[in-house]
Design brief:
CATH architecture of the largest domain: Alpha-Beta Barrel
Number of strands: 14
CATH topology of the largest domain: TIM Barrel
Subcellular location: Cytoplasm
Oligomer: single chain
Radius of gyration: 24 Å
Number of domains: 2
Strand content: 5-15%
CATH class of the largest domain: Alpha Beta
Structural class: alpha/beta
EC number: 5.3.1.5
CATH superfamily of the largest domain: Divalent-metal-dependent TIM barrel enzymes
Cofactor: Mg(2+)
Subunit structure: Homotetramer.
Largest sheet: 8 strands, parallel, barrel
GO biological process, one term: D-xylose metabolic process
């Protein structure tokens, strides 16, 4: 099967047109070559289009089936359909002029009747990707393996009670990691979609955590064996689809990585939708990952706060994004990571060009938010007041306490002898909220 000669109505790459761009398909804020804080905007944001939601999701939901009717979703020759899908994918990458894309193994290539056949299919499509990458501008941000959709993974992959499932998952991950390495991927993601439990009545939690720790350790060992120098990324995910995930949030993941000695090689890929489901803000999860030294990359989407599941909508909330980017800039920005559009258009958005509008709108929202965050950094608008609030800890006594040069008794005696009576100082929250509004 060949891809449609022209799947999208739009033919020319989307260009920057300025804040008053007349076309709805012109970037108003995302000027990729604009230099901000010493780097091009494109190099700061590192946008990536995801393969699965954009080209594999048929538009179904728990109460209704396919609405998109993509031509590569139906046919007898699975590899031919996968190649047609790749043609359309790389056309979208060209139209959006994005620097990166991401994929799962079974999104890019059809799953075979055996692991051997699935690996062969993946390598066949990797050959297609490799040839397309030679003449395209787009590169691979990361690859991953789908260890949650198939029936065999109903009780998890690494945490499965059956070691044969664990071994099968290892086969999938090795193939996907090696293909990611071959294609020049900057990172590799371990997505634990079902690494959790439904009920403790049939679960040995310690055993499952040890299994998961060993699995991630084996992936790290193989990464070094093949010379892959990018980080392994884990994505915190609280309760979807499993009742309780072992990778619940940043704090939980950090504890897990520390316990199994993985913090050097494994970082976190964060998502707003998952942060909300875990009872946190996106800003909180980014700030904590930065503080703990495990920040890696972002899936850039948003959830519906009125719904209790992962709706994966395109990120359009510039004020929320500005605070997220402010945390990223405070930490020095991305290294190997970037902004992956793990987002899907709504099932009523059935026109092919809706995919383009969604990405353009979200890229513009991110760019607008990033410029606001950069403005706050340049003006020291938030970092200045925060530094002033903690200034005492940068003084001689504060430094001595943190350096271990004071005991509990030393501090207690000083407080008693000097008659310390500290005067509380305002946190100025409302003032700082109004400062943020001046920039966004």
């Amino acid at each position: 099967m060949n891809a449609p000669a022209r799947f999208f109505e739009t033919a020319a790459p989307i260009a920057y047109g300025g804040p008053n761009a007349p076309s709805p398909l012109g970037f108003r804020w995302y000027d990729k070559d604009r230099v901000v804080l010493g780097k091009r905007l494109e190099d700061h944001l590192r946008f990536a289009v995801c393969y699965w939601h954009s080209f594999c999701w048929p538009g179904g939901d728990p109460f209704g089936g396919e609405t998109f009717l993509r031509p590569w979703h139906h046919g007898d020759d699975a590899l031919a359909l996968a190649k047609a899908k790749a043609d359309v994918a790389f056309e979208l990458f060209r139209l959006l002029d994005v620097p990166f894309f991401t994929f799962h193994d079974v999104d890019a290539a059809p799953e075979g009747r055996s692991l051997k056949e699935s690996v062969a299919n993946l390598n066949a499509i990797a050959d297609v990707f490799e040839k397309k990458i030679e003449t395209a501008r787009v590169r691979l941000l990361w690859g991953t393996a789908n260890l949650f959709s198939n029936r065999r993974y109903m009780a998890g992959a690494a945490t499965n009670p059956d070691p044969d499932v664990f071994a099968y998952a290892a086969g999938q991950v090795r193939a996907a990691l090696e293909v990611t390495h071959r294609l020049g991927g900057r990172n590799y993601v371990l997505w634990g979609g079902r690494e959790g439990y439904e009920t403790l009545l049939n679960t040995d939690m310690k055993r499952e955590l040890d299994q998961l720790g060993r699995f991630v350790s084996m992936v790290v060992e193989h990464k070094h064996k093949i010379g892959f120098d990018g980080p392994i990324l884990i994505e915190p995910k609280p309760k979807e689809p499993t009742k309780h995930q072992y990778d619940f949030d940043v704090a939980t993941c950090y504890g897990f990585l520390e316990r199994y000695g993985l913090t050097k090689d494994v970082k976190l890929n964060l998502e707003q939708n998952h942060a909300i489901l875990a009872g946190h803000s996106f800003q909180h999860e980014i700030a904590l990952a930065q503080a703990l030294g495990v920040f890696g990359s972002l899936d850039i989407n948003r959830g519906d706060e009125l719904l209790g599941w992962d709706t994966d909508q395109f990120a359009m909330n510039a004020p929320e994004l500005a605070l997220a980017f402010h945390e990223i800039l405070k930490g020095g920005g991305f290294t190997t990571g970037g902004l992956n559009f793990d987002a899907k258009i709504r099932r009523q958005s059935i026109d092919p060009d809706d995919l383009i509008h969604a990405h353009v709108g979200s890229m513009d929202a991110c760019a607008r938010a990033f410029l606001a965050a950069a403005g706050m950094i340049e003006a020291d608008a938030l970092t200045g007041p925060v530094a002033e609030r903690y200034a005492g800890w940068d003084g001689p006594e504060g430094r001595a306490i943190l350096a271990g040069e004071r005991t509990l008794a030393d501090l207690a005696d000083r407080a008693l002898e000097t008659g310390l009576d500290p005067c509380p100082r305002s946190g100025r929250q409302e003032f700082l909220e109004s400062v943020v509004n001046r920039f966004v």
